[in-house]
Design the sequence.
């Protein structure tokens, strides 16, 4: 039976004798002892599956992430003679960091924050250009800040404008809703104590205020739980100073996986931005009313002073975000004083705004909309300008050291930042459109004759451009479907050549060729992202111009135009309103399903495995970074084991596990790194990470890693949609990439495979005999590095007979 649920903790009675840092004192230790540390990939795995044994024990770690062994291997260090010529297998299980909890699927609602955080790490690789590098990081952080303001402004639009201002102030809207009765006012503006517009706004402001507080709490709590792990320390002060001065690949810098100071600064700035947005949304209408003829001069002066204070604090927030980026050359542990002062100042001003708006103003009545068009228009304009400048900066960086395989010629980061803004617009516009549609009893939001004016005109224009965007996206997908079909036909000849001497079946050949063609679609994703981002930018600019020049929704603005144009505009408006609302509901429904359905939760967990590898360097409210826990885990385990035993390690990573393995190898001290061999399979190191994140996984970084570890072999298949070759320059060292593995192992029925062999794609690499062959070669090279030739035998990729097992992914 599987023992992970009830095993004793290390050190407790009945616990395995292995200590977390290595073998117990006095245990037998041999320098030729080998450890195979398996790291699973996307989607997670169990220790029993990874170790191919139902009886496993946890030797280090907790319920979130831990190292496991087979029960029979728990005291392997005390019996080195039993492990001559074979490694001690261990499994590092980290799936609970991403998909182990159903509530974590609700992070899906913060997808725009995660996407813009990815844009920060997509900076092109460059030589020099420190000013441009800093400008790139600054621009991404400002885009991220605008998304926080956008989210808070959308919450204010829903709670303050649509509910408290429009519906509660209109008898035809609030009359049939008992839950709005205490806020409602009649046609003459009479009602209860809460019926005055300022008091309604102050009460409704608690909703976006609570949302901001919730985001701060989640960000702070997840940082303490997942990202506050200390990296491996230097042995002494001199070694630490030498490490800081030495040139490193970015992921090998001492402070790369510990950004406490920047994270705290960004969390304080974004929390303050949210609170200031709430304060401005409440104080603005009240101050505008007080400055009208007949208003109170004292309240008018107080409102102007409050708005000035909000503006000054907002400038301070922008300065804090702009002032400092990541410090990776050392541990960034010191906190700034403003981490507490800035949010407290913003909170104080917001509370003063609520009190100011709640002051009695008997003659005030709510009519029309709050000034949401100006707010959302300014945000959209600022986001578009920032993305354009970001694109120019990225192109300049890419031009210094152009790399052929970098996606979109260095424009991957700006394209993804544009997608983040588009996602933010879909989610904010979607919730506003759906709520407005519900409040006005099914009428088209913003159309004349409805009980309420509806959401800002710009949000309706943004919804209206969604249908043409989907049409263009569909055309791109159809084009790629045709190309994939043609590629599959061409692959059939290659499939036949890969299985010489075997009887061929046309149906089987077509299936294998289709699997290869579909796997190749991954390499076409940059074009799709580029097209969608470019079209989104152009259509968004058109929506902004249309909203500001006409001041009316598309259907009304096109009424004077020919009937065809007018009808198309009205159709786009109605269809876009439905689609943008449906898009938001899809996010909510998917998150709710993931909470109840383990299969759906596993699928969303795969998305987070890819999207949350990177630290929160641009947006503090993005989902937490699991690598800031898993990379120190692996580094500590390898370093402590090699130090205590003097043995060698085969770091075996599948899929996303290979990325964690590479990051851990970069973090090791040179003495420990020389005792490590990398075995990667189904690895996206170059195919995805190298192309999308060239500054950190580009050719220079991967070639450096190849030169620093003792040896490295990579296995891949043509049918794998995620993994691929790492394309490392060898320069006299052994080749890293083995020739592509045959998949399936046999085309038809053979003596070795009497039943049809499955097409494995991204899974079950350990089931291929080549896996055991390459692992044995790595162990042999680690044991006697001087006696082996530069070129490993078997690099032609011919599979040898050997043992098989389960995939660690």
Sequence:
């Amino acid at each position: 039976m599987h023992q992970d649920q009830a095993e004793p903790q290390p050190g407790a009675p009945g616990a395995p004798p292995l200590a977390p840092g290595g073998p117990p004192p006095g245990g037998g230790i041999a320098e030729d002892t080998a450890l195979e540390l398996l790291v699973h990939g996307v989607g997670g795995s169990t220790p029993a599956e990874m170790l191919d044994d139902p009886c496993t024990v946890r030797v280090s770690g907790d319920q979130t992430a831990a190292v496991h062994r087979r029960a029979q291997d728990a005291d392997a260090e005390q019996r080195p003679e039993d492990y001559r010529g074979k490694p001690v297998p261990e499994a590092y299980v980290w799936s609970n960091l991403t998909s182990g909890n159903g509530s974590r699927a609700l992070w899906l609602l913060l997808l725009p924050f995660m996407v813009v955080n990815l844009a920060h790490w997509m900076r092109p690789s460059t030589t020099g250009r420190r000013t441009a590098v800093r400008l790139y990081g600054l621009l991404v952080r400002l885009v991220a800040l605008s998304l926080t303001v956008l989210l808070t402004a959308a919450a204010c639009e829903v709670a303050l404008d649509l509910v408290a201002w429009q519906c509660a102030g209109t008898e035809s809207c609030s009359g049939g809703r008992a839950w709005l009765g205490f806020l409602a006012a009649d046609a003459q503006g009479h009602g209860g104590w809460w019926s005055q517009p300022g008091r309604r706004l102050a009460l409704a402001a608690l909703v976006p205020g609570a949302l901001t507080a919730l985001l701060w709490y989640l960000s702070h709590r997840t940082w303490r739980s997942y990202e506050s792990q200390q990296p491996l320390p230097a042995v002494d002060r001199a070694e630490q100073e030498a490490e800081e001065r030495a040139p490193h690949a970015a992921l090998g810098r001492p402070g790369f996986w510990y950004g406490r100071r920047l994270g705290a600064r960004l969390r304080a700035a974004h929390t303050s931005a949210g609170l200031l947005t709430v304060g401005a949304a409440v104080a603005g209408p009240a101050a505008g009313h007080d400055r009208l003829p007949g208003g109170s001069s004292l309240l008018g002066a107080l409102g102007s002073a409050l708005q000035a204070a909000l503006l000054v604090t907002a400038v301070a927030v922008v300065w804090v975000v702009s002032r400092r980026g990541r410090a990776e050359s050392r541990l960034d542990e010191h906190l700034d004083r403003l981490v507490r002062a800035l949010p407290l100042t913003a909170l104080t001003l917001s509370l003063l705004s609520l009190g100011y708006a709640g002051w009695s103003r008997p003659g005030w009545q709510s009519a029309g909309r709050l000034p949401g068009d100006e707010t959302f228009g300014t945000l959209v304009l600022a986001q578009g300008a920032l993305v354009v400048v970001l694109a120019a900066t990225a192109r300049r960086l890419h031009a210094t050291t152009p790399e052929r395989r970098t996606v979109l010629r260095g424009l991957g980061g700006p394209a993804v930042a544009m997608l983040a803004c588009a996602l933010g617009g879909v989610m904010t516009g979607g919730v506003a459109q759906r709520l407005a549609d519900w409040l006005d009893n099914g009428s088209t939001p913003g159309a004349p004759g409805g009980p309420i004016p509806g959401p800002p005109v710009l949000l309706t224009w943004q919804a209206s451009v969604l249908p043409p965007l989907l049409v263009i996206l569909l055309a791109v997908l159809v084009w790629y479907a045709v190309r994939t079909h043609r590629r599959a036909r061409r692959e059939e000849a290659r499939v036949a050549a890969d299985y010489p001497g075997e009887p061929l079946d046309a149906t089987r050949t077509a299936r294998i060729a289709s699997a290869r063609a579909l796997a190749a679609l991954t390499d076409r994703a940059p074009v799709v992202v580029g097209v969608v981002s470019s079209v989104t930018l152009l259509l968004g600019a058109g929506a902004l111009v249309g909203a500001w020049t006409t001041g009316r929704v598309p259907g009304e603005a096109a009424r004077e135009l020919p009937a065809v144009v007018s009808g198309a505009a009205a159709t786009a408006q109605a269809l876009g309103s439905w689609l943008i609302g449906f898009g938001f509901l899809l996010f909510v429904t998917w998150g709710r399903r993931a909470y109840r359905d383990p299969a759906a939760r596993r699928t969303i967990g795969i998305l987070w495995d890819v999207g949350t590898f990177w630290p929160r360097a641009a947006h503090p409210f993005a989902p937490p970074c699991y690598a800031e826990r898993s990379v120190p885990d692996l580094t500590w385990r390898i370093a402590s084991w090699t130090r205590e035993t003097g043995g060698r390690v085969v770091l075996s990573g599948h899929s996303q596990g290979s990325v964690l393995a590479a990051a851990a190898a970069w973090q090791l001290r040179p003495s420990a790194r020389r005792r490590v061999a990398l075995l990667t399979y189904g690895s996206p190191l170059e195919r995805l990470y190298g192309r999308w994140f060239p500054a950190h996984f580009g050719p220079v970084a991967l070639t450096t890693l190849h030169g620093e570890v003792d040896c490295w072999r990579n296995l891949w298949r043509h049918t794998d949609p995620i993994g691929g070759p790492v394309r490392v320059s060898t320069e006299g060292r052994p080749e890293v990439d083995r020739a592509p593995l045959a998949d399936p192992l046999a085309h038809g029925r053979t003596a070795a495979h009497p039943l049809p062999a499955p097409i494995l794609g991204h899974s079950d690499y350990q089931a291929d005999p080549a896996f055991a062959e390459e692992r044995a070669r790595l162990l042999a090279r680690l044991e006697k590095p001087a006696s082996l030739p530069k070129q490993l035998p078997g690099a032609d990729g011919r599979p040898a007979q050997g043992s098989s097992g389960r995939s660690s992914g």
Remarks:
- The chain has a mean pLDDT of 83.
- Residues 777 and 793 are 8 Å apart (CA to CA).
